[in-house]
């Protein structure tokens, strides 16, 4: 097992390597996916990516609730 100066050098090398990997990786997939979810159900707070999916969700999960006015013109 590495000790003293060798251990410190190994940690520095690993930190530099991890920084390079993070730098080249680019964008975060979770953040991009979360940004794509733009429609939020007012009843259950579920997020959907497009109005068609939102209308289908609303009709199947909340059939007794009136459709929100912003979804009136959307076809399922």
Task: Please tell me about this protein's structure.
- With 76 residues, the chain is mainly alpha-helical.
- Helices cover 54% and strands 5% of the residues.
- It has helices at 4-25, 29-36, 51-61; strands at residues 39-40, 47-48.
- It has a two-stranded antiparallel sheet with strand order 1-2.
- The N and C termini lie far apart (63 Å).
- The mean pLDDT is 83.
Brief overview:
The chain has 76 residues and is mainly alpha-helical. The chain has helices spanning 4-25, 29-36, 51-61; strands spanning 39-40, 47-48.
Structural class by helix and strand composition: mainly alpha
Report the span from N to C terminus.
Answer: 63 Å
How many beta-strand runs?
Answer: 2
Low-confidence stretches: none
Encode the helix/strand succession as letters. Answer: HHEEH
Globally, the shape reads rod-shaped
Largest sheet composition = 2 strands, antiparallel
Mean pLDDT: 83
Q: What descriptive keywords fit this protein?
A:
76 residues; 3 helices; rod-shaped; metal-binding; zinc; 54% helix; zinc ion binding; two-stranded antiparallel sheet; Znf_C2H2_type; mainly alpha; single chain
SSE layout and pairings?
Layout: H1 4-25, H2 29-36, E1 39-40, E2 47-48, H3 51-61
Antiparallel strand pairs: 1-2
